[in-house]
Specification:
five-stranded mixed beta sheet, about 10% strand, four-stranded mixed beta sheet, alpha+beta, about 700 residues, disordered N terminus, globular, single chain, about 50% helix
Length: about 700
């Protein structure tokens, strides 16, 4: 829906919406600080970065909002995150500048928000930016009335334009305050409508033709040569390729599988992948996965581990296994706390320069590797002129090992040995460099995604250490983030949690616990998932639309209570909750859960058909309704071996349950046969004849 703004504000959009940039300087936290603001009491690394700005920042909360009302001041709401390069740029150019701070402090109440801690706040003001300017991003800077209703929002501003914009609105407030009120009312009405899903009546029966139509619509936007979307920048978007893997499984559509494998291969070869230490950057700035935006996020790497694990089960491509093991080694080395929790991200910048930690000049490589430099440089496309800017090189590949080995007259094993030796030497140099900043806050939702990543890797390769990591983190969440009644907190830092959980925290934790159950058959995890689901239904579910709100009914004090519906770099919390309801409905034989999931799917069916690229996680649920799930029960002492045999295959329409003792799950009742491990393949509460061999069960699955 489009909303027309008063001409006065449209002019402001044209005048002040621009972008450019330079790098930020590092902070020495031990120095004496001339200024200290209210952010000094926060735990978020992003907020603490701004604690010594001359701007009188406040964290989001009642104190700042009340101050604005008491003093009748406009509010600046500035939103970013610790690994955000452009956030650092704007801080250095404007928020560290005393001239800018004077304008801000005298005329506004200034609020800083970590979007990763408070995505609910970000959601509201990002909607405002998109309504007003047609785009969004970070840093996100909104200007609102004292009650929080925004009348303007944009992204990055250079210092001069930032001051101009602030003075412009100060002048409007003094001379024509009614215009700001009018704009705020319009924008707020628009915010209410964004992703506002309504209940839709339908007796829809989903079929494979629906999926065929969606893939046909999707094809035009796919890059079958380099992978990903047919544009730049390129984001990994794991749920898209998960959807196409599932669609391939159902349809045997080779072109859909090609879209996945081309994407995974080119990401693994490209500069978006860290070839020395493992792990993926947040996105590629170009269409070839060549130049990354260098920050490394937990949520990307967790989902990509799951994706590559599923793709390995489907294709057995050894490249995918290599990527998974290296990425999980990176997570262990850089993003894992002593307690087994997972940190949020690594910055793009070090020493005030984006990517400095990761890039190389050819002479550096030649000096360190000596005779081995030539092979290494050919393998990773290193040149004297540089494959990036300022004679610097991003390590990246263009071809498979077999092709490079043939070109160099080496065997594949000889090539690998040379490359591994070179990597080890360069890692020693890199580790001596100034590392990018670590955002060491722990977010429940992102930790849950990483649990699922470890579980999926365990199921693909049987590596017990992966399962141990997943269970350790799940126990951490139970201890520090989940109360006995199912209420969750979102963040954890220095032994404390300060923010009530949002729907994505529940959705991904429930999903992780369902995954853990299928990897262990420990019903504790299924029970915990069910408890969290019941709590989410009580406090987030909207009985009118049959969807879930993003915020808790007791802690929703923003100007609009929003829903999160479209899938993006992380699947939406509504699509994940719908999938959870579907799966738990099958584990517990709960038709109400399944009915809720189907109604949620029907509510967004038109959006799925129109733009599957941003509804791919919903598309997986649609696929489950297209071809009903098989419920495979494995009972008896040797259940683990049998389960692992199933996990050698990609089976997206199979759920596993069982164990070696009696269970309260209805599907497992009276299934235990003394002295025998038995497999039951069931569908729609009807089981086929029991078998004892996995190969026979797989035949029943088809």
């Amino acid at each position: 829906m489009n909303y027309r703004l008063p001409v006065i504000l449209l002019c402001a959009v044209v005048l002040f919406n621009s972008s450019c940039g330079q790098s930020a300087k590092n902070k020495n936290m031990k120095e004496e600080h001339k200024y200290t603001n209210e952010l000094i009491n926060e735990s978020s690394p992003y907020l603490l970065q701004h604690a010594h700005n001359p701007v009188n920042w406040y964290p989001w909360g009642d104190k700042a909002l009340q101050k604005a009302k008491d003093e009748n001041k406009l509010i600046i709401i500035s939103i970013g995150y610790a690994a955000c390069h452009w956030c650092h740029v704007m801080e250095h150019e404007s928020f560290e500048d005393e001239e800018v701070a004077k304008v801000m402090n005298e005329n506004f109440v200034c609020i800083k928000v970590d979007r990763e801690e408070r995505p609910d706040v970000d959601q509201v003001y990002m909607a405002a930016a998109q309504l007003i300017t047609g785009s969004g991003g970070w840093p996100l800077n909104a200007i609102s009335l004292a009650d929080g209703r925004p009348f303007y929002a944009g992204t990055y501003f250079p210092k001069t334009k930032w001051i101009q914009m602030l003075e412009y609105f100060v002048d409007v407030q003094k001379k024509e305050p009614q215009k700001l009120l009018q704009s705020a009312e319009q924008v707020t009405n628009g915010i209410h409508q964004v992703e506002n899903v309504s209940f839709k009546e339908s007796g829809k029966v989903f079929s494979i033709s629906d999926l065929d139509k969606q893939f046909a619509n999707m094809k035009a936007n796919l890059d079958f040569k380099k992978g990903g979307a047919n544009r730049a920048p390129k984001f990994p978007m794991p749920s898209n390729w998960e959807y196409l893997l599932h669609y391939t499984y159902l349809s045997k559509h080779e072109e859909a599988l090609k879209a996945v494998t081309v994407t995974l291969e080119n990401m693994a070869y490209g500069g978006i992948y860290d070839h020395l230490e493992g792990g993926f950057a947040r996105y590629s700035t170009d269409a070839d996965w060549h130049v990354p935006h260098f920050e490394k996020m937990l949520y990307d790497n967790s989902q990509l581990v799951s994706l590559y694990a599923h793709a390995f089960q489907q294709t057995k491509n050894p490249l995918y296994k290599k990527v998974i093991y290296e990425t999980l080694a990176f997570v262990q080395h850089e993003l894992t706390s002593p307690e087994g929790a997972f940190y949020s991200s690594l910055d793009a910048d070090s020493e005030g320069e984006e990517g400095k930690y990761y890039v190389w000049k050819k002479e550096e490589i030649e000096k360190k590797l000596g005779a081995g430099a030539d092979v290494f440089s050919i393998y990773y496309n290193v040149t004297a002129a540089g494959n990036w800017e300022h004679d610097k090189n991003i390590l990246l590949r263009r071809e498979a090992d077999e092709a490079t080995a043939k070109k160099l007259g080496l065997s594949v094993s000889e090539l690998k040995n040379k490359i591994d030796a070179g990597k080890a030497k360069l890692m020693k140099i890199r580790e001596a460099r100034v590392k990018p900043g670590l955002d060491d806050k722990v977010l429940s939702s992102w930790n849950a995604l990483m649990i699922s990543g470890y579980v999926d890797a365990y199921r693909a390769f049987g590596e017990e250490a992966f399962l141990t990591k997943a269970i350790t983190n799940a126990e951490f969440l139970l201890k520090h983030a989940i109360a006995k009644d199912g209420e969750m907190t979102r963040n954890y830092k220095n032994g404390k949690s300060s923010i009530k959980a949002l729907l994505d925290d529940y959705a991904f934790t429930i999903a992780a616990f369902i995954d853990l159950y299928q990897a262990t058959f420990n019903e504790k995890w299924l029970d915990e998932a069910n408890t969290l689901t019941a709590y989410a239904i009580e406090h987030f579910f909207d009985p009118k639309s049959k969807m879930f709100f993003y915020t808790h009914n007791k802690y929703s004090n923003l100007i609009s209570r929003k829903m999160e519906v479209a899938d993006n770099v992380i699947p939406s919390s509504n699509s994940e909750m719908a999938k959870n309801l579907f799966l738990l409905g099958h584990f517990f034989y709960d038709e109400d859960y399944i009915s809720k999931a189907k109604q949620m799917l029907i509510n967004v069916e038109a959006d799925i058909e129109k733009n599957i690229y941003f509804y791919a996680n919903w598309g997986i649920l649609q696929a489950w309704f297209t071809k009903p799930l098989y419920e495979v029960a494995i009972t008896g002492d040797d259940f683990k071996t049998k389960r692992q045999e199933f996990d050698e295959h990609y089976l997206p329409d199979v759920i596993l349950l069982g164990g070696k003792t009696e269970s309260k799950l209805e599907l497992l009742e009276n299934k235990l046969v003394a002295g025998q491990t038995t497999i039951y393949v069931c569908r729609d509460k009807t089981c086929k004849l029991p078998v004892t061999e996995v190969v026979k069960a797989l035949e029943q699955v088809g």
